[in-house]
Amino acid sequence: MPDRDGYIRGVPAWVDTSQPDPDAAAAFYSELFGWESEDVMPEGSPAKYFIGRIRGRDVGAVSSKMEGEPPMATWNTYIWVDDADETAEKVKAAGGTVLLEPMDVMDAGRMAVFSDPEGAVFNVWQANQHKGSGVVNEHGSVNFNSLNTRDLEAAKAFYGSVFGWTVLDLGGSGRFWQLPGYVDHLEEINPGFKQAMAGSGAPDGFADVVALLNPIGDDQPTDTPPNWSVTFAVDDADAAAAKTTELGGDVLMPPFDAPWVRMTVLRDPQGAVFVASKFVPENAALGDEAGAAASSA
Questions:
Q1: Could you give the domains of the chain?
Q2: In angstroms, rounded to a whole number, what is the distance separating the alpha carbons of residues 186 and 43?
Q3: Is the pTM of the predicted complex or chain greater than 0.90?
């Protein structure tokens, strides 16, 4: 996938992590992913916002905790919208909650924070000067955003109403959110994309996928809340797990093989959980057991 210079409505476009100690977190992710980090807040600001870059292009950020936010560190998913205020009305009409009303972020854009009917929190981004992640699907950049939910039918109804998403169910290979017609946008910015997807053996409909949809299984702790999580692409999942431990983080799920990938679930030193995943085409044929393990992550 070529470098990105914007997205279309309904596509996850940006991630950041809210941290009690943003300086330490920026150092952690810079070491782990090779980011070049820059605090872009105005001089004298009490808050910090470190944008991480690869090849000079924005890939994600580390932020101070906002006043009133829970103290734990989290990763946050932003979905591109044309109108944050209009989206807020759609969220309310579909049974969600507005946690932070739409607000301008200097000249970067306009954002809002919502929760779905189950309580999974997500952000939206109405772009102005900041066009989202400029690099995706390569080492140290976002590979997937995932909704982890206990109520699949409620999630389908809510996100279908707000963003027009539908569900692609590939059985043991997982469930995915599709944005019908997204493949046409990808073909426009990357001519030959449709042919490349077909040649790679991708399942029908996969080119329209914008996010993962993971059920929270009965084998997981009963206090696991519905949530949005972030997966980063890495060149080596085993090396990413070892590096995380070296830098003071934790390996919550050691590297394992799943359909199309080798992945690991990690936690940074301040508690934010994320996934690191290496694309492994040879794993495409792995069966239902591996797919179930991947979904539980």
A1: 1-297 (3.10.180.10)
A2: 38
A3: yes
